[in-house]
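Q: Start with the shorter request: fold the first protein.
A: Done. Sequence, then structure:
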Amino acid sequence: MTQVRVTDACAKRILELSREKGDDENLNYYLRVYVDAGGCSGFQYKFEMTSETELEEDDVVLDGQRVVVDTASLAYIQGSTIDYVQEMIRSAFCVVENPLSESACGCGSSFAMKNFASNPALD
């Protein structure tokens, strides 16, 4: 069992996006969450919709959710919450309450790992 929580707002938005893609009943779309090297803090969170046919062998589908994370990225977001926030200037998926993050940039899309020397950003 993974230790990543998905908020109701996130789950609702995934369902809306899936329906916009014409997938009303089969729910063949997932939100892919992954961590990539880069951003102003060293690592950045990335989000994209992906179909069931595009799932990879090392992907983990979060328990009972339409969210998929590759095993390498899961190590960086374990204990986090995936949310969908709507603000005046933007609406976006985000990773919040990441216990492995030491700091984040102002917009929240990139972060620095605690104990970075043991977890370097590899390009």
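Q: Next, the second protein, separately.
A: Sequence, then structure:
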Amino acid sequence: MGWVPQSKQDKQNSSETQNTRQNTSTAQTITDNSFQDLSHAAASVAEALSHLLGTLNQTVEEQRTVLIQRHVTVTRINGLESEMRSGRLNRSGYEPTKSCLLYTSDAADDLLCV
């Protein structure tokens, strides 16, 4: 048997098979490129989220420090108010003292008209 000419149908089938292979290859290339694009996008999103989380943690820590400082200040003020109400402190923040005048013996003698 020698060479047998292809029928018109065989040529059409061969051409369709070749087109299908090209389409499959093109689809695979598109899929691969899409996957790479998605991978890059996911990495960018992950990096942005990581940065945002770091910023939020820093902000929360700063606010926590401010709240602690305010709490300490309020506690001190409340303590001072309590001590002022009880009479243990005067308005200047010092313990009240009882004033007395110290007389020397000469001054005491003058006072008594001696």
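Q: Describe the second briefly.
A: Residues 8-86 form the longest helix (79 residues). The chain has a mean pLDDT of 75.
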